[in-house]
Automatic annotation (TrEMBL):
Gene (name only): ahcY
Record-linked CDD domains: SAHH
Family: Belongs to the adenosylhomocysteinase family.
Domain S-adenosyl-L-homocysteine hydrolase NAD binding: start-end pairs: 187-348
Protein name: Adenosylhomocysteinase
Amino-acid positions noted as binding substrate in the UniProt annotation, renumbered to this chain: T58, D129, E152, K182, D186
Keywords, ordered alphabetically: Cytoplasm, Hydrolase, NAD, One-carbon metabolism
PANTHER family: ADENOSYLHOMOCYSTEINASE
Main localization (coarse): cytoplasm
E.C. number(s) listed in UniProt: 3.13.2.1
Lineage: Archaea, Thermoproteota, Thermoprotei, Sulfolobales, Sulfolobaceae
Molecular function terms, GO-annotated: adenosylhomocysteinase activity
Cofactors demanded by this protein: NAD(+)
Length: 419
């Protein structure tokens, strides 16, 4: 482990050249963010701004961090999951002067120590993925230097809204997750593809003909269910929301309680953001050979601790695939230790979809710097930013769309015309 105090702590700095090639590849596929970087590099709106970020340290995150750096910011970066860091990318960013504290395979103590390292540098902007950094800053490291923050995920936004409602939120936060150009694409298309990628890399199984159980039919669950069906799976959805359950049913999926689905599923994927969605009462009913994967932010959706405690034996079969021998003699296979399967066992979302998510991040940070009088609340991404990201994305894809005529604009604002 190479370490230079107060600068970086990565697995191996010699991986930097490989990481730089990864960043080059990602930048080629993230032209929206590159267009934004071009402008920010000239204007330097983040000059003198210190940013502390806890994000998945992937090549796509690297493109965002480079963009913030080009805009003038001093960036401190830690990983938002112990298994999601791409070590070559972390090394590449460290070699370019970014303060990186992340490596793949951190234990729990190291994970929180790295977050603490970036929390205590007295930042102006907090960028988070999951809410751990926001929570730690509020508990131990808040300072009046903080202008505001952003949050990337559904899980983190839920935590921040709870803080706002409890009256303890100490600075404004923009919920990047709530942008249309984030959740409609990143959560649905990004996770829909990358979660299956992680499952396939960990197992190399055939999807066609399998019964796949998706717990949760939010945007992430919708994406995974849709793509699993596209690969020939028979998909069952479990839900606690009657509205989402009805939607899943009318989208053509079977809907039933997890206790019943547990008996017939071949592959189980959790996507709820809640705890013990699949517990030992469910697991003990599963088929011999059932596969368990999680696509939610934290490793709490599957009862991993219960599985470890009650199993007669555990052995690693393949990278990111652990076999648990249950008391009844059946075997179940847990992928990526119950952590985010798309980032732990694969590379996360494709660059093209993270292009929009991180364009929202960069523009939201700039918005915070230009609007320092925001109240202590959780805000949605401003509509003009959402539209700018969508327009830029269409432009770099070579797609043109219609514009309303003057007559149509006037008609859309009037109330007198009827049938």
């Amino acid at each position: 482990m190479k370490c230079r105090p107060n600068m970086y702590k990565v697995k191996e700095i010699k991986l930097a050249d490989q990481g730089l090639r990864q960043l080059e590849w990602a930048e080629m596929h993230m032209q929206t963010l590159m267009k934004i970087r071009e402008r920010l590099s000239k204007e330097k709106p983040l000059a003198g701004i210190k940013i502390s970020a806890v994000l998945h340290v992937t090549k796509e995150t690297g493109v965002l961090v480079r963009t913030l750096h080009h805009a003038g910011a001093e960036v401190y970066l830690a990983g938002s999951n112990p298994l999601s860091t791409q070590d070559d990318v972390a090394a590449a960013l460290a070699s370019e002067g970014i303060n990186v504290f992340a490596w793949k395979g951190e234990n729990e103590k190291e994970y929180y120590e790295n977050i603490e390292t970036v929390a205590k540098v007295s930042p102006n902007i907090i960028m988070d993925d999951g809410g751990d950094l926001h929570a730690l800053v509020h508990e131990k490291y808040y300072s009046t230097n903080i202008i505001g923050g952003t949050e990337e995920t559904t899980t983190g936004v839920v935590r921040l809204k709870a803080m706002e409602e409890a009256g303890v939120l100490k600075y404004p936060v923009i919920a990047v997750n709530n942008a249309f150009t984030k959740y409609l694409f990143d959560n649905r298309f990004g996770t829909g593809q990358s979660a299956i990628d992680g499952i396939l890399r960990a197992t190399n199984i055939m999807i066609a003909g399998k019964i796949v159980v998706i717990s949760g039919y939010g945007w992430v669950g919708r994406g995974i269910a849709s793509r699993m069906r596209g690969m020939g799976a028979r998909v069952i959805v479990t839900e606690v929301s009657p509205v989402r359950a009805l939607e899943a049913l009318m989208d053509g999926f079977e809907v039933m309680p997890i206790d019943k689905a547990a008996e017939i599923g071949d592959i189980f994927v959790t996507a709820t953001g809640n705890i013990n969605v699949i517990d030992m009462n469910n697991i003990i009913k599963m088929k011999d050979g059932a596969i368990l994967a999680n696509a939610g932010h934290f490793n709490v959706e599957i009862d991993v601790e219960g599985l470890k405690k009650e199993s007669k034996q555990m052995r690693n079969i393949r990278p990111f695939t652990d076999e648990y021998l249950l008391p009844n003699g059946k075997r179940v296979y847990l992928l990526a230790e119950g952590r985010l399967v798309n980032l732990a066992a694969a590379e996360g979302h494709p660059s093209e979809v993270m292009d929009m998510s991180f364009a929202n991040q960069a523009l939201s940070v700039e918005y915070m710097i230009r609007n320092k009088d925001l109240k202590k609340a959780v805000y949605n991404v401003p509509e003009e930013i959402d539209n700018e990201v969508a327009s830029l994305k269409l432009s770099v894809m070579g797609i043109k769309i219609d514009e309303m005529t003057k007559q149509q604009k006037e008609y859309s604002k009037q109330w007198k015309y009827g049938t």
